[in-house]
Design a protein that fits this description.
With 197 residues, the chain is α/β, with parallel strands linked by helices. The chain has ten helices and seven strands.
Length: 197
């Protein structure tokens, strides 16, 4: 029976990961996004820049001299860890046929993981970046007939252009950039002063 056939219910998925022998590594600044997953996934180790458990969690590896701060972005932190000699030594001791998980990764991180012999448990970084664009996902939703908030997709370089392309949306608009966290790339605009803060 193939793995696809065997893993068609929650119990089979839980059993599969409980008896997993492949080393899985979650590389990130901390355990936060997969906290507790090591209780469900056998052979899962966290490789982090911060030890949130102060040495009390047996499934965490943090290099002794790891930078806890000063890394700009999740991808930069992941690449930093994969370039760290202590991480390479740790992975080498654990053996081949290992897989890696990331919250976010880019092409440089992808290359570093492959150089270390790690299989990435996601589609390629280029595809992730393509699908991460809010413009792309809006276009895909429109093509699939999935209802979206009323919107206009346009390049806007001035307040006059914004008013022209968004005239049907009313006087108050929300401008969303294609990439980035919504808290830093979402703008509520009612006046020209809002457009040029």
């Amino acid at each position: 029976m193939s793995a696809m056939t065997a893993l068609q219910c929650p119990a089979a998925i839980r059993d599969f990961f409980r008896h997993n022998h492949t080393p899985f590594y979650y590389v990130s600044t901390s355990t936060f996004n997969l906290l507790g997953a090591d209780a469900w996934i056998n052979n899962l180790t966290f490789i982090n820049t911060i030890d949130s458990f102060d040495g009390q969690q047996p499934h965490i590896f943090v290099p002794d001299d790891a930078l806890a701060h000063g890394l700009h972005g999740i991808e930069a932190a992941n690449s930093y860890l994969l370039k760290h000699q202590a991480v390479a030594d740790y992975l080498h001791k654990r053996g081949p046929d290992s897989a890696v998980l990331f919250l976010m990764f880019d092409e440089p991180t992808e290359r570093l993981a492959h150089h270390l012999g790690l299989r990435i448990c996601f589609p390629p970084a280029a595809l992730r970046r393509y699908l991460d664009s809010k413009v792309t996902t809006t276009r895909l939703a429109n093509r699939a007939g999935v209802p979206c908030v009323p919107n206009v997709l346009a390049r806007v370089e001035s307040y006059a252009t914004l008013r022209r392309v968004a005239h049907a949306l009313g006087p108050d608009v929300v401008v969303q950039l294609p990439y980035g966290d919504s808290g830093t790339t979402t703008f509520f605009i009612s006046t020209e002063a809002d457009f040029h803060p």
